[in-house]
């Protein structure tokens, strides 16, 4: 059975594990650095990002998480997990928080507002739907949700969403930052960059399993590519060894 690690410090890790179970995959709770050695892919769930960061720092998880991402292992961050994976975050609480990084983007924490401004909406994601079937829209659950304001050239945008009319009154945006946000007609809410998948919303809180299925297939493709490259390198090394062992005639 396939094993997928789920960071289980705080937040909706149980919900992710339940969806994985429905797809015939075992989710493994990850709380310590050494546990990452037992899995080849990882989900960082939604939750309270500052609290999760403090717990990750307490358990000395950040170095291992960064190495996991750097090694090209498949990682999916939802909501707070997206914030974790971003190279840059704005709108943070005083003092900020540590980030894992690896995703070339700038994310605004709580872009869509406070807890009472949480909402559900249909999100258009044709790339995911084309691979998983079904309608092109997905139910997006946005809970104190972040949004991606800028994404690098290697980042594939999977979904965006219109900026709500009430965003100018958000207590988490002010001054120039607020002006920048309001002038954008849309913000990015789902992306992929090589081994990293990230969503600003919570697919684990809906009955639709297609995002999880998409991540599992992505992880499988990455593993197969890695194995092919490893085998190619082995073949090259073997051929070179054979050449070196050939007799040299004068």
TrEMBL record:
One of its GO terms (biological process) is pyridoxal phosphate biosynthetic process. Pfam families: SNO (PF01174). SUPFAM superfamilies: Class I glutamine amidotransferase-like. Its EC number is 3.5.1.2. It catalyses: L-glutamine + H2O = L-glutamate + NH4(+). PROSITE patterns: GATASE_TYPE_1, PDXT_SNO_1, PDXT_SNO_2. GO terms for cellular component: cytosol; glutaminase complex. The active site is at residues 79, 202, 204. InterPro entries: Class_I_gatase-like (IPR029062), PdxT/SNO (IPR002161), PdxT/SNO_CS (IPR021196). L-glutamine binds at residues 47-49, 109, 143-144. Keywords: Glutamine amidotransferase, Hydrolase, Lyase. It is an enzyme of class 3 (hydrolase). GO terms for molecular function: glutaminase activity; lyase activity. It comes from the Eukaryota. PANTHER family: PYRIDOXAL 5'-PHOSPHATE SYNTHASE SUBUNIT SNO (PTHR31559), PYRIDOXAL 5'-PHOSPHATE SYNTHASE SUBUNIT SNO1-RELATED (PTHR31559:SF0). Belongs to the glutaminase PdxT/SNO family. This is glutaminase. It comes from Arachis hypogaea (Peanut).
């Amino acid at each position: 059975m396939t094993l997928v690690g789920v960071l289980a410090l705080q937040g909706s890790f149980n919900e992710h594990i339940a969806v994985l179970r429905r797809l015939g995959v075992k989710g493994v709770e990850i709380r310590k650095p050494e546990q990452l050695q037992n899995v080849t892919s990882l989900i960082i769930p939604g939750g309270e990002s500052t609290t999760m960061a403090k717990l990750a720092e307490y358990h000395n998880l950040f170095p291992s998480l960064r190495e996991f991402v750097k090694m090209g292992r498949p990682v999916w961050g939802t909501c707070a997990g997206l914030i974790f994976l971003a190279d840059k975050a704005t709108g943070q609480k005083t003092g900020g928080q540590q980030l894992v990084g690896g995703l070339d983007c700038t994310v605004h924490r709580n872009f869509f507002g406070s807890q009472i401004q949480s909402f559900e909406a249909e999100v258009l994601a044709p790339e995911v739907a084309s691979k998983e079937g079904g309608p092109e829209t997905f139910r997006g659950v946005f809970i104190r949700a972040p949004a991606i304001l800028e994404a690098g050239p290697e980042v594939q945008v999977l979904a965006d969403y219109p900026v709500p009319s009430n965003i100018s009154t958000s207590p988490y945006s002010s001054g120039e930052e607020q002006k920048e946000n309001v002038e954008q007609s849309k913000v990015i809410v789902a992306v992929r960059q090589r081994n990293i998948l990230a969503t600003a919303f919570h697919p684990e809180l809906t009955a639709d399993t297609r995002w999880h299925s998409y991540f599992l297939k992505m992880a499988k493709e990455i593993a197969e590519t890695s194995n092919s490259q490893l085998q190619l390198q082995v073949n090259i090394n073997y051929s070179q060894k054979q050449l070196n062992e050939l007799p040299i005639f004068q």
